[in-house]
Design brief:
By secondary structure, this protein is mainly α. The protein has 2 helices and no strands. The longest helix has 15 residues, at 22-36.
Length: 44
């Protein structure tokens, strides 16, 4: 996965602030996004 240096710095700062690794933060963010995104396969 490619991430801009600016985004990487923000991720590192956020991860450090809550005491988890960058990898764990990214995984949590992905899971959150997947659970909360609109399901385009259903009508309405």
């Amino acid at each position: 996965m490619r991430i801009s240096m600016d985004t990487l710095q923000i991720l590192d700062e956020k991860a450090s602030a809550i005491g988890i690794s960058r990898n764990e933060l990214i995984n949590q963010m992905i899971l959150f996004a997947l659970a909360n995104m609109a399901d385009s396969t259903t009508d309405g």
